[in-house]
What we know:
By secondary structure, the protein is mainly alpha-helical. Helix content is 52%, strand content 4%. A hairpin with a 2-residue loop joins strand 2 and strand 3. Helix 4 (108-120) crosses helix 6 (170-179).
Amino acid sequence: MTKSNDETPARAEAYSGAPKGIITDTMKAPLPKRFYKSATASQTAPYQILLDGRAVKTPKKRALALPTLTCAEAIAAEWAAQTEFIDPASMPFTRFANTAIDAVADTLPDVAADIVAYAGRDLLCYRAEGPADLARLQAAKWDPVLSWAKATLGADFEVVAGIMPIDQPLATLDGIAQALLPLEPFRLTALHVMTTLTGSAILTVAHTHSHLTAAEAWAAAHVDEDYQIALWGVDDEAAHRRKLRAAEFLAASTFIELVTVRPMPEALS
């Protein structure tokens, strides 16, 4: 990948520092009562959610228009499943779509740069100085993913023992940036969610490029935590938080599948 020298300072600035976590929840509000009887998806593009026949708007009053019928039907099912109150916590696909339309669509380069910033301080690059068995577990789970990133994305990450931050090569971060293309708001929203939940852009990209399953990526992100659990047992409160985060990760993974526009099959001759 060839870049002009004039671009280097700008790229370094975009990738520098700690990730900002720039996506915010667009549905934080007191729970409203359910006010509709039916929730359906329109059957023609642009695919929308219809509550008693009226199209749903985002919190910023924009059209909640979805790229695929499959996604619209999944979101309509979330609305249909609400009971007395409308609870956004039980509607991850709706939240992701609102965020994509109201926030990410306006800041695509910034959101992508934030994911790349996670790669610059990626979980997989910082290894335990001890005990030795934890370091071996990390190497067993993480080294194959780093090898895949190098071979597939041209992203050759430096690995260190300890937690002191290091700067990754710009060519490596460019490899991650290229893997995020095209910068499409629905997909990018899900990628950002998965990256912030795992602390690893590398694991997120490996999963969305079908190198890791969702379960494999999630397990790799929790090597340290699982090691501590094996030593000291399960903390119920921490286990509950992890369960909620795991559900959000899986929802984000599923959302990417829902919004992916599949090519039409070729006509048979």
